Amino acid sequence: MNRREWMRLGIASVCIFLFVLVILVVMTFVKSRETVDYNTDPVEEEIIFHNSSDMTEQEIRLFVEEKRTELKEFFETAKYYTVSEVAQGYTQEDDEKYLVVDREFLEQLQSLLTTDAYGMFWNEFEEVVPKSDTFFQTRLYLARKDLFDFVYVTSAIAKFDVSEEKLILENATNDKITAIINILLCDEENICARDDKYQFHLEKEEETWKIADFTTLIR
């Protein structure tokens, strides 16, 4: 076999090798496409309620809703004062920065929340001196004006941008109940612009059930 024939044989071998390589690559690609799962939507796990308390599930559900309603009604009827009208040493310019509440407001809030949950708000207040002509018979406390804004919008008791609320029970003992409040804003075609979940926890504190968390967003 002369040199030219060897060259032809070599070229033919290279072509055959490249052809086989291309076939293998194509087959591998097709097989990979067949096995890829393009469904990237997260699968939401069903929450199983665990109850080791002395109450039935229905009793717990009603109790949690009752405590949530109490807190919601408290904020819906809350009385806020204009700082320049009731506090000594403040002007109308301060009205855009601060709000004022009375001692009764804080006592009612304290009766609903655990010590830690209440402390989140109490630490934001400072006492102010009432104006002499207001005739207040109670002590007054000042905080920044937007302190409670998130409560009405982004919490388990939100009242704005809400079309539906769902209570999901997680766990219950005789001392603690954990639940989730699903806040939804959906149209008639069930297209939801909002689907937020917030923790709603109850704890016994000195034998009294109080709300331990209603502000934590579950991500």
List the helices and strands and how they pair.
Elements: H1 3-35, E1 50-51, H2 57-76, H3 83-86, E2 98-102, H4 103-112, H5 115-122, E3 126-128, E4 140-144, H6 149-153, E5 164-172, E6 176-186, E7 192-205, E8 208-213
Bulk shape: globular
Query: How many strand units?
Result: 8
- Average pLDDT, rounded to a whole number, is 86
Side-by-side strand order of the widest sheet: 1-5-6-7-8
The share of residues in extended strands comes to: 25-35%
What can be said about the biggest beta sheet? Answer: 5 strands, mixed
What is the terminal-to-terminal distance? Answer: 75 Å
| CA-based gyration radius | 32 Å
Q: Count of DSSP helices? A: 6
Order of helices and strands: HEHHEHHEEHEEEE
The helical percent reads 25-40%
Given helix and strand content, the structural type is alpha+beta
Q: Spans with pLDDT under 50 lasting ≥5 residues? A: 28-43
